[in-house]
Amino acid sequence: MFEILKALPADPILGLSAAFKADTNAKKIDLGVGVYKDEQGNTPVLKAVKQAELAYFNSESSKVYIGPPGAAGANTLLQNLIFGASHPAVTSTRVRTIQTPGGCGSLRVAAEFIKKANPPATIWVSDPTWANHIPLLGNAGLTIKTYPYYDATTRAVNFNAMMETLGTVGKGDLVLLHGCCHNPCGADLNREQWQAITELALKNGFTPFIDMAYQGFGEGLDEDAYGVRLMAEKVPELIVSSSCSKNFGLYRERAGGLSIVYQSAADADKGQSNLLSVVRGIYSMPPNHGSAIVETILASTELTNMWHDELAEMRNRIKALRALLNQKLIEKGAQQDFGFIEHQSGMFSFLGINKDQVQQLVQNYSIYLVDSSRINIAGISQANVDYLAESIVAVLKK
Ligand code: LMR
């Protein structure tokens, strides 16, 4: 039966890594997959993670099953990180957090859970959104529609158009929002905009669904959670998918969480039983290691402080690289204004060049980026930024 299957093209994001590896050009630059890199182009294991792993290795006494929700201690600490321990939704026990195989696992479980509660639900996603949102949510059988988000001309959120479309969304449907560090465009909602969407959700009855894959990469752990915490306080129901891939650098360990805010503690108990049955029916229970490391870090003041410092270092390096790229583009004679790169947030921005120009960067300059012109800012370094800026300017002049 398998002979009828047709070969598929490589994943638009992950496929870039293989092409980059195979390239022998010494000047090659990888701005593709969204992973943090240091000045040497490495993605090292964080020191706090290494220390937590050693401590955990010495204390782990069993490999017995962890169960569909994951470890209770890890879930509480993750919930506190996202919402804050004294958040009213947390203290009134209306939030349930489970451990998931990364942010992707969380999104897929959430989609299956929504399908269970309301099969005809539509999920509204931003245009553009992270490419993998569509299969992760759509393959669960939910309808996906888009709302306007990024304006390629102003290089900012087109909030009026966004609100106009969201004004048509009602009860039973969901609106997927990026908690911070929008992937792929880097243009985030400001506080007033979060407040306005919250008011609209209350008025029209749609359920917000927040993907928070980059907490701590924008302005800080608490600052980046502003939208999540506001909505959790105001709206009756909320879904939050979170990831520990970027902020703890645990990519391959697949550590993430799914938090659902319910209208009442009684609903939370009913909902949780359904959520766990979804998990049992897909992968039974999450992997342990990554979340155990997160738990070990968050349970220790010393390791938490160490992690905060390392997270701040990553965040500040990305901010500095944003300013550096803009400055180099000006120096190399770019005719258009790239100041937006400096003001956007998180790992990604669109260069705003067309597909043909992207292909020229890939083919002629060995600079790897997603077709949409999304670049991973963390792939820039002091050593490659001149070549990168020169190449972008050269491609724009053609
Ligand atoms: C990205 O957007 O590059 C990352 O989230 C990695 C991925 O899985 O696509």
TrEMBL record:
<dbReference type="GO" id="GO:0033585">
    <property type="term" value="P:L-phenylalanine biosynthetic process from chorismate via phenylpyruvate"/>
</dbReference>
<dbReference type="GO" id="GO:0005829">
    <property type="term" value="C:cytosol"/>
</dbReference>
<dbReference type="Pfam" id="PF00155">
    <property type="entry name" value="Aminotran_1_2"/>
</dbReference>
<dbReference type="InterPro" id="IPR015424">
    <property type="entry name" value="PyrdxlP-dep_Trfase"/>
</dbReference>
<dbReference type="InterPro" id="IPR015421">
    <property type="entry name" value="PyrdxlP-dep_Trfase_major"/>
</dbReference>
<dbReference type="GO" id="GO:0030170">
    <property type="term" value="F:pyridoxal phosphate binding"/>
</dbReference>
<keyword id="KW-0663">Pyridoxal phosphate</keyword>
<keyword id="KW-0032">Aminotransferase</keyword>
<protein>
    <recommendedName>
        <fullName>Aminotransferase</fullName>
        <ecNumber>2.6.1.-</ecNumber>
    </recommendedName>
</protein>
<dbReference type="GO" id="GO:0004838">
    <property type="term" value="F:L-tyrosine-2-oxoglutarate transaminase activity"/>
</dbReference>
<dbReference type="InterPro" id="IPR004839">
    <property type="entry name" value="Aminotransferase_I/II_large"/>
</dbReference>
<dbReference type="GO" id="GO:0004069">
    <property type="term" value="F:L-aspartate:2-oxoglutarate aminotransferase activity"/>
</dbReference>
<comment type="subunit">
    <text>Homodimer.</text>
</comment>
<dbReference type="InterPro" id="IPR015422">
    <property type="entry name" value="PyrdxlP-dep_Trfase_small"/>
</dbReference>
<dbReference type="InterPro" id="IPR000796">
    <property type="entry name" value="Asp_trans"/>
</dbReference>
<feature type="domain" description="Aminotransferase class I/classII large">
    <location>
        <begin position="27"/>
        <end position="392"/>
    </location>
</feature>
<keyword id="KW-0808">Transferase</keyword>
<dbReference type="InterPro" id="IPR004838">
    <property type="entry name" value="NHTrfase_class1_PyrdxlP-BS"/>
</dbReference>
<dbReference type="GO" id="GO:0042802">
    <property type="term" value="F:identical protein binding"/>
</dbReference>
<comment type="similarity">
    <text>Belongs to the class-I pyridoxal-phosphate-dependent aminotransferase family.</text>
</comment>
